[in-house]
Amino acid sequence: MDMKTVEWKDNSVIMIDQTKLPNELIFVEYTDYRDVAEAIKNLVVRGAPAIGVSGAFGMALAAQQSNAMTKEELIVDLETAYQILLQTRPTAVNLKWGLEKTLDIAKQGKTISEIKNSLIEVSKKMAEDDITINKKMGKNGSELFQNNDTIMTHCNAGALATVGYGTALGVIRATKESGKNVKVIATETRPVQQGSRLTAFELKHDGFDVSLIPDTAVGYTMANGLVNKVVVGADRIVQTGHVFNKIGTYQVATMAKQHGIPFYVAAPLSTFDMKSDAEDVIIEMRKGTEVTGMGDTKTAPDDINVINPAFDMTPPELISGIITEKGIVKPPYEESIKKLFN
């Protein structure tokens, strides 16, 4: 997957439309930050690192769009854009990280043209850094995996969830690149099928031995010895080591614990939230139609109540290690995570 999920080109933001995969590879182009906000909200772009960079690009677009005559007016326009972009996905902390970084840079600028240029430069650098960080993380994580391991992953934490290379899939890539033979089991990840549509697509495209399972077969697969390691990504990790990731991650981690299978999380430092407690994190609830049908086909009765959380929380006692660009942190997490940021 050497193509970029999101990039800045000719004062536009270019994205792969992930709602169309795996049937079509379509690139969309945005020149309005409000369209970037809609793209984040509607999963055209998804994955914590990718939406962090997309948010930064949205801020750069907002600066270009602004007709402000003074720095103060431009900052007001950017603060409006910040709020619109921030409200699209409340759980993944990378989005807030990308928005805050660009807004801080804007406030330090002296002139309108300086601010407009600096926001383009800083967001492009964030995109480049994302790939570099993922490769460092992959190299660190590859040490945890052995030749002939079969690795389970949930959702999509690959090149498509980042600017490129991936977090959890970056670790799997780096393991293969180090000369080890690995197989992958991908969960389908209902209800939006990020596992079957994106992870399976990505790994097959890149020549991996990958098998797809329904989410309900995680226990069967583990009980029958078909998997011996798990690695997933994260949308937010708080300082206690509680991990917020795609709905179903908690089930996979619980099953892994039951069967004595190491369960790893791969995430960059930008995914860590050192200010919030686990109970403060808002779990995004998505529309019921994601569950009551597939495409135009109805699969549930009319007017049925639906509970459709996008994320769940995995407690630290289920996690064998957290892989970052600075190394692998192990329990007790409160101490080891603090050390990462010192």
From TrEMBL:
Annotated catalysed reactions: 5-(methylsulfanyl)-alpha-D-ribose 1-phosphate = 5-(methylsulfanyl)-D-ribulose 1-phosphate
Gene3D superfamilies: translation initiation factor eif-2b, domain 1, Translation initiation factor eif-2b, domain 2
InterPro entries xrefs: IF-2B-related (IPR000649), IF-M1Pi (IPR005251), IF_2B-like_C (IPR042529), Initiation_fac_2B_a/b/d (IPR011559), M1Pi_N (IPR027363), NagB/RpiA_transferase-like (IPR037171)
EC number: 5.3.1.23
Binding site residues for substrate: R46, G47, A48, R89, Q194, N245, K246
Site feature: Transition state stabilizer: C155
Lineage top rank: taxon: Archaea
GO molecular function: S-methyl-5-thioribose-1-phosphate isomerase activity
SUPFAM superfamilies from the UniProt entry: NagB/RpiA/CoA transferase-like (SSF100950)
Catalytic residues, chain numbering: D235
GO biological process terms on file: L-methionine salvage from methylthioadenosine
Pfam families (alphabetical): IF-2B
Keyword Isomerase: yes
Keyword set, alphabetical order: Amino-acid biosynthesis, Isomerase, Methionine biosynthesis
Role summary: Catalyzes the interconversion of methylthioribose-1-phosphate (MTR-1-P) into methylthioribulose-1-phosphate (MTRu-1-P).
Family under the similarity heading: Belongs to the EIF-2B alpha/beta/delta subunits family. MtnA subfamily.
Protein known as: Putative methylthioribose-1-phosphate isomerase
Species per Swiss-Prot/TrEMBL record: Nitrosopumilus adriaticus
